[in-house]
TrEMBL record:
Classification via Pfam families: OCD_Mu_crystall (PF02423)
Organism: Streptomyces pseudovenezuelae
Protein name per UniProt: Ornithine cyclodeaminase
Lineage per the UniProt record: Bacteria, Bacillati, Actinomycetota, Actinomycetes, Kitasatosporales
Gene Ontology CC terms: cytoplasm
SUPFAM superfamilies documented for this protein: NAD(P)-binding Rossmann-fold domains
InterPro entries: NAD(P)-bd_dom_sf (IPR036291), ODC_Mu_crystall (IPR003462), ODC_N (IPR023401)
Length: 340
């Protein structure tokens, strides 16, 4: 008998996500990826300009991963329009579809917003914990949307060390509202809304840009010694900031190398990036002077096959392009939780 496709709403997903160890799931996916128990195709992207002159895009990101002795397959479709916030809508939204491994039929459709934000924050938190010199005390977040809130909620639950959060958003009211909401819950943390991104970033132990920019604005000299920068929105750093970093770590090199729009992918296509060690072709000469050397993928750090931080003063940049495997795995666990 073929089961009818289940549909889980945003509210369903939010409630079930509370019962899911998202950081643990993300870690297991990285281990599976390192062990070759995944299939991660390139994402496809459709871009257009709408009748209002606003940039729009649709991403389709399939993946298959084996965790808990069980394979999970599916895809995330997530669409965005830069004009949506002015309409009172979230900038991005979409669905995750899970597939039956025998029939290949979709068995569950889940609202993607909470899963996408939750797994993105989980990757950032895990990467930071793998790479920080000491537990973070001062955190800078540039951008004050849903991703900023997801990152800070997760980080502040896990890190009692945090004493200060500096927030900046081009729309100051958004940053102020977020600071007030979080301040009501996290009373041991000082929340400061800064007038500029520079004021937020300088001297922070951890920097998390979560913006919609397509132009770099964070130079190397804003980044403190020993800091970790998790470059979530991918285009906030200048090429010089990437070049000056002591280490650059990616989530998946193949996705970065295939990309034609983000800064690290563009630098790679220009011959300015040396791939992580296990992706280097011994028959291909390395660039004479690569501007950026990618030192590891996150799966290598998780499974211990690559070294993380080598000095307390290292400035480390994490470039998490975004792996659909995490969305699919988290969705799969939510689906199983619903069925039980």
């Amino acid at each position: 008998m073929v089961r009818a496709m289940l549909q889980l709403t945003d509210a369903d997903v939010a409630a079930l996500l509370e019962k899911t160890d998202v950081v643990g799931t993300v870690r297991e996916v990285f281990l599976a990826h390192a062990a070759g128990r995944t299939v991660l195709p390139e994402e496809s992207c459709l871009r257009w300009t709408n009748d209002e002159g606003e940039a729009c895009r649709s991403l389709n990101m399939p993946g298959l991963v084996e965790i808990d002795g069980r394979r999970i397959a599916g895809t995330k479709v997530i669409n965005a329009s830069l004009g949506n916030p002015a309409r009172g809508l979230a900038r991005a939204g979409g669905l995750i579809l899970l597939f039956d491994l025998t029939t290949a039929r979709p068995v569950c459709a889940l609202d993607a917003a909470h899963i996408s934000a939750g797994r993105t924050a989980a990757v950032s938190v895990l990467a930071t914990e793998l790479l920080w010199a000491a537990p973070a005390r001062a955190v800078a977040v540039v951008g004050a949307g849903a991703l900023a809130e997801a990152h800070l909620e997760l980080a502040l639950r896990r890190w009692p060390s945090v004493r200060q959060v500096r927030l900046h958003d081009r729309v100051r009211e958004r940053a102020t509202d977020l600071a007030e909401r979080l301040g009501d819950t996290h009373r041991t943390v000082a929340f400061d809304v800064t007038a500029t991104a520079e004021q937020a970033v300088r001297e922070a132990d951890l920097v998390i840009p979560v913006t919609t920019t397509t132009s770099g604005y964070i130079p190397a000299d804003w980044i403190a010694e020993g800091a970790v920068v998790v470059n979530v929105s991918l285009d906030d750093l200048t090429p010089e900031a990437l070049s000056a970093a002591d280490q650059v770590v990616v989530d998946d090199w193949s996705l970065v190398a295939a990309d034609t729009t983000r800064i690290l992918g563009r630098m790679h296509r220009a011959g300015d990036v040396l791939p992580p060690p296990r992706h280097r072709d011994p028959n291909t000469p390395a660039p004479a002077r690569p501007a950026v050397e990618v030192t590891a993928e996150l799966c290598d750090l998780v499974d211990g096959s690559a070294e993380g931080r080598t000095a307390a003063t290292d400035r480390i940049i994490v470039n998490p392009f975004g792996m659909s495997l995490h969305d699919v795995a988290v969705a799969g666990r939510i689906y199983q939780e619903f069925l039980t």
